[in-house]
Design goal:
The longest helix is centred in the middle third of the chain and has 24 residues. 26% of the residues lie in helices and 26% in strands.
C-alpha cells in the first residue's frame, strides 16, 4: 500500500494549483490530507472521484475555513472513524481513521502552539492523544499515523536549531513528547530509510525560505513497530508545490 500524507493548506486552493493532476501522477492507494479548510459540500468531490479516488472521507472543523482532515482512497475501507470521541480534540476536525483489511491509516493534524493559550491546548491534546493511541493499539495494532505533528523531532529536522529552540514546534517539551510517542511503539518511516540532514516538509512563505531550503520537518508517517519490516520505502516529495508543506510518502507491503 502506497500512502501519502499532505498538509494542503486549503484543499480548494491546492486544487487550483494543480493538486489533482499531481495526485494522478503520484498515484497513492491512500492519501491523508490535513488543513483542508473546507466542508465536504465546498469540495469538488466529483473531480476527485474522476482522478481515481471514489472513497472520500472528510472531517471538518466546526469553525468555517479552518483546520480539517480528509482521507481519499482507491480502496474501500472496512470502517471509518471520525474523531477520537474527545470533544476538545474533535471540534477542530483533527483526527480521521480508515481501517483496511490488514492495517489502519489515520490522518492527524496536531495543533500548533502559536500563543500561550494554543500552546496549553496543544500540550493537553498531545497528552490525551497519547492515551487515546495507547488504548487504540490494543484493538488496532497495525497503525499508520500520517500527518502534520507541528513538531520537529531532532536538530537534524530543522534548518536552525539554535535560534528556534524557544519557538513552538521545537520546544524541548514538545520534542520530548514526540520522542516518547515514537518510543511507545512507532517508527519514523522517513528516518528509518534516510539519516541525511536538510530534508524538510514545511517552509515559511517569508524570506524565500523554500527556495533556500530553510525548512522544518514536522510531517511524519509514523508506522507501528510491528509493521517495520513491511515498509519498503519512505520519501519526502518536495517537488510538489501546492502548499507551504510538501507531501510525504511511505510504502507498506
Amino acid at each position: 500500500m502506497k500512502i501519502i500524507s499532505y498538509n494542503v493548506n486549503g484543499i480548494r486552493a491546492a486544487i487550483t494549483k494543480g493538486f489533482l493532476e499531481w495526485l494522478q501522477q503520484a498515484n497513492p492507494d491512500v492519501i491523508c490530507l490535513q488543513e483542508i479548510k473546507a466542508t465536504e459540500d465546498q469540495i469538488p468531490t466529483q473531480d476527485i472521484t474522476a482522478a481515481g479516488y471514489p472513497y472520500q472521507y472528510y472531517f471538518s472543523a466546526n469553525k468555517k475555513g479552518y483546520s480539517g482532515v480528509a482521507i481519499l482512497s482507491k480502496i474501500e475501507p472496512k470502517k471509518i472513524v471520525y474523531g477520537t470521541g474527545i470533544e476538545h480534540m474533535d471540534f477542530e476536525g483533527r483526527n480521521l481513521r480508515a481501517d483496511f483489511e490488514k492495517l489502519s491509516v489515520m490522518s492527524l493534524y496536531l495543533p500548533s502552539g502559536t500563543n500561550i493559550d494554543r500552546l496549553d491546548h496543544k500540550f493537553k491534546y498531545m497528552d490525551d492523544f497519547q492515551n487515546y493511541i495507547n488504548a487504540l493499539k490494543m484493538e488496532t495494532p497495525n497503525l499508520v499515523i500520517c500527518g502534520d505533528y507541528n513538531i520537529c523531532h531532532e536538530a537534524i529536522d530543522i534548518h536552525d536549531p539554535i535560534r528556534n529552540k524557544t519557538v513552538s514546534g521545537f520546544l524541548p517539551e514538545e520534542r520530548a513528547w514526540l520522542d516518547t510517542f515514537m518510543k511507545s511503539g512507532f517508527v519514523d518511516s522517513f528516518r528509518h530509510f534516510n539519516k541525511e540532514p536538510h530534508n524538510y516538509s514545511w517552509w515559511s512563505y517569508r524570506a524565500g525560505a523554500r527556495g533556500n531550503n530553510k525548512g522544518w520537518r514536522i510531517d511524519y508517517n509514523l508506522v507501528s513497530e510491528n509493521l517495520k519490516d513491511r515498509m519498503s520505502r519512505a520519501v519526502i516529495l518536495p517537488e510538489a508545490k501546492h502548499s507551504d508543506h510538501c507531501p510525504i510518502m511511505v510504502e507498506v507491503d
